[in-house]
Amino acid sequence: MRGDRVREAGLLATVVTLVAAGGVAWWLAAPVTANAVWAAADVVTLIPAAAWVVADLRAKRWGADLLAVLALVATLVVGEYLAGAIVAAMVATGRVLEAGARRRASRNLTALLDRAPRVAHLRTETGQETVPVEEVRSGQLIVVLPGEVVPVDGVLPDGGTFDESALTGEPLPVTRPAADTVHSGVVNAGAAVDVRASAAAADSAYAGVVRLAEQAAARTARVARIADRVAIWFLPAALLIAALAWLLSGDPGRAVAVLVTATPCPLLLAVPIAVTGGMSRASKAGVVVKDGAALEALGRASVLLMDKTGTVTRGRPEITDVVCAPEHDVAEVLAGAAGVEQYSPHVLAAAVVRAAASAGVTPAAAEDVTEQVGAGVRGRAGGREVRVGRSRRAGLPAWARGAARRGRLDLASVLWVEFDGEPVAALLAKDPIRPDAARTMRRLRAAGIGEVRLLTGDRVDNAQEVAAMLGLDDVDAEVTPAGKVAAVAAACARGVTVMTGDGVNDAPALAAADVGVALGSRGATAAAQAADAVILDDRLDRLADAAEIARRSHRLAVQSAVAGTLLSLLAMLAAAGGFLVPVAGALVQEAIDVVVILNALRALGDRKARGPAPAAMVRRFESEHERLLPARAAVRQAADALAEGATPAADAAVRAACRSLTDQLLPHEQAEETELYPALATALGGPEGTVTMSREHAEIGRLARRLQRHVAEAPGGIQPDQVDDLRATLYGLDAVLTLHFAQEEEAYFTLPST
């Protein structure tokens, strides 16, 4: 590539020098010398240009480059040496511009290759051993030193801090807790950390991205051959106009002028610049596109098929709700449950541990932990026997029957927590919809995707619930990989189809679609290899970024090609009529080139008028949402407790909910109103973007004050005549808080950040 760059720059420098030298000779009244120098510029360019045409013909391509060669030859034949020199300068400039655009588009891809780790430090009994990264195997413990790139996917025994900007664009270091997953390709931004490899280097997420980058560097942008498709009719038309001009006027100079103005630089330059500019923008947005053909197809897509688990949803279960017995609270339950579950490898056990960490609850010290496959985990924590798992009781108390019903209605799995053999809480676990999914769907439809369908192997009820929440057009559930391929083939018959997925079972469908887009952060190498593009981090909204960029790049490519061709046709007709001599025709064509190239270069720019959201502040309030889970659960728990009437347990639950509101929830809402919302004004296009949320803050405050007055009127305990209104107030608060938190997470916490 460096050699090509030197040759292209050398050709341009030589041609420009010869054109300038000819001009000096002409000014010194040496026309013979001037013509000889200009002819030399023509010949210097004609030789490589002819080689380019021969290479195209050998590849069974012909088109735009051929016209440039014909123009150079024609100017030599009829003695229009200055015109030929100008055409030579255009061709040489075009090669440099095109190569520069391609280098800019591939810069981010090349950076991925440069960052690929070559060695890893294995933890051994005697210390460390540095080995080639290819020798690392799943299960081995490696040491990642400060500033080093994590070489393989793994699990953190003790947590760590990482710079994930190369994959996610997030500029701030990310602290990951113990037992969390870390992906290859991120940089250790803290002290040396241990990583337990969960995959070999060749199977890690970053290795798949590197292979994809290598493919992208090796392949050409087929969409740039739009130029050749246009040239199929443009070339014969130019030759016909030139022949008629010569035949009707008897002046071969007119034919030369036509060929000079027909030099297809708008096609040779504008189209690849627009396409490669779009690839560059997509890469900066976190989406690596294999080639220009994929970008062009994405820009014309009308159908989107999406896998559910891991694509539309997070891909792992999370504890979405905690329903406690009246005499217990969320913090107590999560501490005990996480204490025993932290020793279990089960996916739901990890969800319990994450829920405790998010709520700011420290797992209780546990001992004598045992696990029975399919039943649950038991052990001693906090001085009592704790069991987490499926319920084995024939009869359940009223609160537990209500919790079980909530699980069925919410399509959630229920984990029962028992203390000393008695059920004390139900943990509801679901694979939640990604917070950026709804915004992504709206943006995709605005970008021209008319049909969006869910294509999943999951159960029908779960799939239909997700599709309804996101407003999708249709659902295909319980589909096998072969069924996904068939569905993709049917969709392709209706229009240009995009398939998005993240798992190995999605790979065949990704390969069958017009454009396959894989989420690459989960290490599903097969999916990444089968896809035409890969999203480098775990954000679904990158798909909308890529679709918007692709549609704009395709529009600019076609716009530039059509406008340049039409202007060239007008110039050819003027030349055929004798209104443009060859030199003037070359200058007119040069002006056309400048116009369409400048238009195509717009693909490198960013049209977003709104600014980014402040990352640190958004992350702060997002983490507060997680820590407020116990406070929010206390509101619902108090309302449920009032079902038994004005009992002492209900009174205690109501007062606990009031304290949670006063001490935690209301200060959080006030801080959002005075700190977060003003900071988001730029990203949302003005202060009106948070008006609805501010109104919800006011409603939360009103209901909280109502609850406080209830408590103040009953210093000795809740009275029977307060129960109905208290339940209405508490359930109203729970509904508004649930909606409000969900809206903020979707609308604000998924905004592009600084």
Précis, in short:
Helices cover 57% and strands 14% of the residues. The chain is of the alpha+beta class and 754 residues long.
Topology:
Layout: H1 2-27, H2 31-58, H3 64-78, H4 81-115, E1 119-124, E2 127-132, E3 141-144, E4 154-155, E5 160-163, H5 165-168, E6 174-176, E7 181-182, E8 187-188, E9 193-197, H6 205-218, H7 226-249, H8 252-261, H9 265-284, E10 287-289, H10 292-299, E11 303-306, H11 308-312, E12 318-324, H12 330-341, H13 347-358, E13 366-372, E14 376-381, E15 384-389, H14 398-409, E16 413-419, E17 422-430, H15 437-446, E18 451-455, H16 460-470, E19 474-476, H17 481-494, E20 497-501, H18 507-512, E21 515-519, H19 525-530, E22 533-535, H20 541-576, H21 582-600, H22 615-627, H23 629-641, H24 648-679, H25 691-713, H26 723-747
Parallel strand pairs: 11-18, 11-20, 18-19, 20-21, 21-22
Antiparallel strand pairs: 1-2, 1-3, 3-9, 4-7, 4-9, 5-6, 5-8, 10-22, 12-17, 13-14, 14-15, 15-16, 16-17
Helix pairs in contact: 1-2, 1-4, 2-3, 2-4, 3-4, 3-8, 4-6, 4-9, 4-21, 7-8, 7-20, 8-20, 8-21, 9-20, 9-21, 10-20, 12-13, 15-20, 20-21, 22-24, 23-24, 23-26, 24-25, 25-26
